């Protein structure tokens, strides 16, 4: 059994920040369960252009209001408490926090190691397989 909380993750190597975002990685690849789980904040007024070429990501919003834009179709979708969006096709997208900080529970597969930050392409590099 793994038991962790956001408060004890803050300030550790599993707490990663970038321009307009903050991520506390509660479950990571080293936990050997096949996915990672993060408590992520996108700061109000922030707009992030991202694309996870090596990962599938599911996002559940529990606070704040924003929108996600699918850059291939131009469609814009509301993101608010109780909504989920899944980047199942490595979708290039923009996430915007419009009212309040956007708070998300994010699940990545394959799992992140825990200390990654976004590359210049807006994603994460794959983890090298263990031998």
From TrEMBL:
SUPFAM superfamilies: RmlC-like cupins
First-level EC class: lyase
Keywords: Lyase
Transmembrane feature ranges: none
CDD domains: cupin_EctC
Pfam families recorded: Ectoine_synth
One term of GO molecular function: ectoine synthase activity
Keyword Lyase listed: yes
EC number: 4.2.1.108
Reactions catalysed, as given in the entry: (2S)-4-acetamido-2-aminobutanoate = L-ectoine + H2O
InterPro entries: Ectoine_synth, RmlC-like_jellyroll, RmlC_Cupin_sf
Biological processes annotated in GO: ectoine biosynthetic process
UniProt pathway: Amine and polyamine biosynthesis; ectoine biosynthesis; L-ectoine from L-aspartate 4-semialdehyde: step 3/3
PANTHER family: L-ECTOINE SYNTHASE, PTHR39289
Entry function: Catalyzes the circularization of gamma-N-acetyl-alpha,gamma-diaminobutyric acid (ADABA) to ectoine (1,4,5,6-tetrahydro-2-methyl-4-pyrimidine carboxylic acid), which is an excellent osmoprotectant.
Family assignment from sequence similarity: Belongs to the ectoine synthase family.
Protein name: L-ectoine synthase
Species in which this protein is naturally found: Caballeronia terrestris
Encoding gene per record: ectC
């Amino acid at each position: 059994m793994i038991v962790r909380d956001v408060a004890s993750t803050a300030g550790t190597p599993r707490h990663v920040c970038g321009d307009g975002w903050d991520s506390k990685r509660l479950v990571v690849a080293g936990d050997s369960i096949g996915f990672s789980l993060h408590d992520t904040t996108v700061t109000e007024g922030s707009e992030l252009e991202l694309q996870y070429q090596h990962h599938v990501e599911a996002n559940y919003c529990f606070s704040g209001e924003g929108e996600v834009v699918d850059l291939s179709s131009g469609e814009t979708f509301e993101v608010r408490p109780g909504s989920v969006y899944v980047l199942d096709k490595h979708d290039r997208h923009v996430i915007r926090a419009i009212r309040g900080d956007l708070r998300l529970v994010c699940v990545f597969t394959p799992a992140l190691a825990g200390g990654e930050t976004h590359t210049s392409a807006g994603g994460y590099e794959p983890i090298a397989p263990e031998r």
